[in-house]
Amino acid sequence: MDNKKVQDTLDYKTAELVGLPVKYFEKNRENFFSNLNKRIANLNLNSVIVLTGGDEIPRYDTDINHYHFCQESNFYYLTGVREPGLYAILDLQSSNAILFYDEPPENNKIWMNVVSKDQMSEKYKLEVVPKKDLNNFLQQRNMDIIYTLEGENEYTGTSVLTAGLEFKGDLSYLNSRIKHESMIYEVLCETRCIKTEFEKDLLFFIGKITNDAHLEIMKNIRPGLYERDLENVFLNYLSKNYYTRFWAYPCIGGCGNNAATLHYDINDKLIQDGDLFLADMGIRLCNYTSDVTITIPANGKFTKKQKEIYDIVLKSNREVIKIMKAGETTYPQMDKLSKMVILKELQALGLIKSEYSVEELYDKRIWKIFMPHGLGHYVGLDVHDVGSKVSYKSERILEEGNFITVEPGIYFIDFVLEKAFNDPEQSKYLNVELLKTYKGFGGVRLEDDVYVTADGVINFQDSLPRTTEEIEAFMSKNNTYLNSSK
To answer: How many other C-beta atoms are found inside a 10 Å radius of the C-beta of residue 291?
Structure first.
């Protein structure tokens, strides 16, 4: 993909501040309406879907917001609206979207930027109606069915943000028209997991600048820094050059044993000579996210043990990417392959006993001792994006337009190893004494964001040095601190 072409098409730094073009969200709605017709038999088009956006709620008991507002992902995907406190109606008959907005009092202009109803309409090219008129609007529309988004987030189990509708008095008859249909949310999840061309271009750009920020970590790391210093390098580079305001998730920057804690984010340890440093860091731009992990030697040189483990993880990553193809590869195939590679190579290193077949090791879940997580997840508006669990899809098979992570890892987690050593059913597969020499090693994870095509994938991290040789060469050439200490 030609990154210069992407940048020439749209200035993403400007879009981060003012929003993406409305045509992008018109396309999202078009795709969503089309999928609803495909997936829901005999869909009654004389229907509406009522959406609620996020609210800007002060934290705890203060009147101050400690964060920049970030719109709820489903509402943003279908409307492009970045302001808090709105409702929207999607009309299945006309394919129109209507916003419901309370215009702030004029005196608010003293304290903040105030968007008028007319400005809101012009900004998003949508009809805007006062929120107080929502119920009357629905009465006049006289639709057969009122849908809301209902369901659970597949990662957290928390309920999706749902419009709480209650009609009273003369309008109480509308309560019987509310239909509780979880399929609406599932179809939206499916729609979101197939990225449009504009999403692909934007995500490529976010991946490119995320790569550059990780390269800055490689240029600046050295023993004697704190883990948080590298988090600052990453975030400051992106803030300075692209005016990013949000991380995609709390930065994970762990050295030594901390690299074996999957979501470690304290980042307060002093980096020692000989440590590996695992940086799992992504950014949010124009409401979309990246999720990238590198693992590098703090002093610029891998030890023999570090190189051996790193090379296994990289091989697992690359072998999975080789088989990925839309319409052919399933997620369980990818996940199993990543773990089979790790088991086979750990066996070759002597950490797992050689008399057992790799299939038996896999079936006995020995991989869980070393890689206790799945291979990856969708990425998009949420860093753990929706779409992997849809009830009408019996198998999670790759589709063109999917954007997912490939992130195998090997971790030497003290308490996990101790439990395995003391479990006869697991320890019989392990060379316990040799594994004990890896105490304090930490972990290695390599995470690429890849876009699925009919012919394979586009790896958005191709510009990063990934082999141990490439990393050492890059750091030797570009890390002035390490060079000056030679």
So the answer is: 25
* CB-based contacts of 286, cutoff 8 Å, min separation 6: 12, 15, 16, 19, 20, 202, 206
**Phi, psi at residue 166, to the nearest 5°?**
-145, 120
Position of tokens 């803030």?
239
Q: Helix or strand or coil: residue 141?
A: helix
Contact 118, 53 (CB under 8 A): no
**pLDDT score for 388:** 85
Domains recognised in the chain with CATH numbers: 41-180 (3.40.350.10), 194-484 (3.90.230.10)
Characterize 171-181 residue by residue with b for buried, 16 or more Cβ atoms within 10 angstroms of its Cβ, and e for exposed.
Answer: eeebeebbeeb
pLDDT at 8: 46
**In 54-160, alpha helices (H):** 73-79, 117-124, 134-141
Q: How far apart are CA 281 and CA 416, in angstroms?
A: 25
Residues 6+ apart with CB under 8 A from 181: 40, 147, 150
The reply to whether the predicted model has a pTM over 0.90 is: yes
Which pLDDT score is estimated for 347?
A: 98
- The pLDDT of residue 67: 77
CA distance 210 to 67: 22
Show the low-confidence residues of the chain (pLDDT under 70): 1-9, 485-486
Residue 4, pLDDT score: 45
The three-state secondary structure class of 233 is helix
Q: Nearest to residue 402, comparing CAs of 191, 249, 248, 198? A: 191
Strand partners, 88: 51, 99
By C-alpha distance, which of 440, 429, 477 is closest to 306? 440
pLDDT tens-digit readout, 18-39: 999 999 999 999 999 999 999 9
Q: Are strands 127-129 and 145-148 parallel, antiparallel or unpaired?
A: unpaired
Q: Are strands 448-452 and 457-459 parallel, antiparallel or unpaired?
A: antiparallel
Query: CA 270 to CA 227: how far, in whole Å?
Result: 6
Q: Tokens in use for 444?
A: 């290695």
Find, among 145, 186, 119, 140, the residue nearest to 50 by Cα: 145
Give 226's strand partners.
Answer: 270
Task: Count the Cβ atoms, other than its own, within 10 Å of residue 385.
Answer: 25
The tally of CA atoms less than 13 A away on the side-chain side of residue 93 is 11
- Give the residue from 311, 273, 324 showing the smallest Cα distance to 449: 324
pLDDT (0 to 100) of residue 1: 43
Q: What are phi and psi of 263, to 5 degrees?
A: -115, 35
